[in-house]
Design a protein that fits this description.
Layout: E1 6-7, H1 9-15, E2 20-23, H2 27-31, E3 39-40, H3 46-59, E4 62-65, H4 70-81, E5 86-89, H5 92-98, H6 117-138, H7 144-160, H8 164-170, H9 184-192
Parallel strand pairs: 1-5, 2-3, 2-4, 4-5
Helix pairs in contact: 3-9, 6-7, 6-8
Length: about 200
């Protein structure tokens, strides 16, 4: 097995015209700003997009990106398990922007950015832990099991590199596709076409 190749933002910028960039964030996160030319295929839709991604990989290198690099690493691993080699962007979209590179936004996208999925997960998990502790102190000690359940879920998430809470949050209306984001069928059609 080969070591996965990770490109830093400068390398990715220099090779951008030769790469098929696949952004695995939610459509709302993608609309908040993405690498120029990136195609949005959310992580939970990767299985459906696999045939098109395999085909695209035969025509050139794939670069998977997310906000910080966690979801793109999971996507890269899932693709590798299916025989598809993909590159990863060090630091994700945040690293790209921090390096001073421009982000594209779909026409009509809202001016306010949607929180990154990992930030949403931290907010919900932290809130549930605090709620479980408060209810355990004020109402009944059994409510502390809520905090224990969230802690167990976070450990499981780290060990398996999956996140059920992120999948659930990704289905909320503000994380879903809107009129200004392309639907998956449109994205898959673009993926199958020539680059440019």
């Amino acid at each position: 097995m080969t070591v996965p190749q990770i490109l830093d933002p400068a390398e990715a910028r220099d090779r951008l015209a030769d790469l098929t960039v696949v952004d695995v964030r939610t459509p709302a996160e993608y609309a908040s700003g993405h690498l120029p030319g990136a195609l949005n295929i959310p992580l939970d839709a990767l299985g459906r997009a696999l045939p098109a991604l395999k085909d695209a990989a035969t025509r050139g290198d794939l670069l998977v990106v997310c906000q910080s690099g966690n979801r793109s690493a999971a996507a890269r691993d899932r693709l590798a398990a299916q025989g598809v080699t993909a590159l990863d962007l060090a630091g994700g979209t945040s690293g790209w922007a921090a390096a001073g590179h421009a982000l594209d936004r779909p026409a009509g996208a809202p001016a306010t950015a949607v929180w990154a999925m990992d930030r949403q997960v931290r907010l919900v998990a932290g809130t549930l832990v605090l709620l479980g502790l408060a209810l355990g102190l004020l109402v009944h000690p059994a409510f502390q099991l809520l905090s224990a359940g969230i802690a167990g879920g976070l450990v499981y998430s780290a060990l398996t590199n999956t996140c059920g809470m992120a999948l659930m949050l990704g289905r909320l209306p503000y994380n879903r596709a809107r009129a200004h984001t392309p639907d998956l069928d449109t994205t898959l059609a673009r993926l199958g076409g020539p680059r440019g």
